[in-house]
Amino acid sequence: MALDRIEILVEKYFEAQTSIAEEKELKDYFTSPDVAQHLEQYKPIFGYATQAKQEQFTATIPLNTNKHKSVVWLSVAASVAVLLSVSLFTYNHYNQPKPQALGTINDPEVAFRETQKALAMISEHVNKGIGSMSYLNEYEQSKNKIFK
């Protein structure tokens, strides 16, 4: 009867349907010395938790304090470098001359001449673009002749 129950619990365990109490029952069974011969293969699975609880780390870890001192000096040097770069940036940023107001002309005649120059330059570039469009017109006419 008990062996039948253990076999049913093993099946339920591998289907992930066991409760915590049933898993404890399986662990107790597989850690006991009288495990059925055909269930011996499952003994390492359930005996692992008990064995893992008994393991302890006994090795000593040597502490290297010289490395700690170099890390401290390295962090101090990095802090100084950051502080120096922030202070230089702030100094350069606030000591630069203020730019003049661009595009502000008080004399109306000078403003008129500057506006004419700007419009002439824009007109020149637009005319270049329109000249390039004549090639597209020729291409369109040739295409219409061929694909009529």
Name some characteristics of this structure:
148 residues, mainly alpha, 72% helix
Q: Could you describe the 3D structure shown?
A:
Helix content is 72%, strand content 0%. The protein contains five helices and no strands. It has a domain of 53 residues. Helix 1 crosses helix 2 and helix 2 crosses helix 3. The longest helix is centred in the last third of the chain and has 39 residues. With 148 residues, it is mainly alpha-helical. It is elongated.
Total beta strand runs: 0
Instruction: Profile the largest sheet.
Output: none
What kind of oligomer do you see? single chain
* Rg measurement, Å: 44 Å
Low-pLDDT ranges: none
Mean pLDDT: 83
Topology:
Elements: H1 2-14, H2 20-31, H3 43-54, H4 65-94, H5 108-146
Helix pairs in contact: 1-2, 2-3
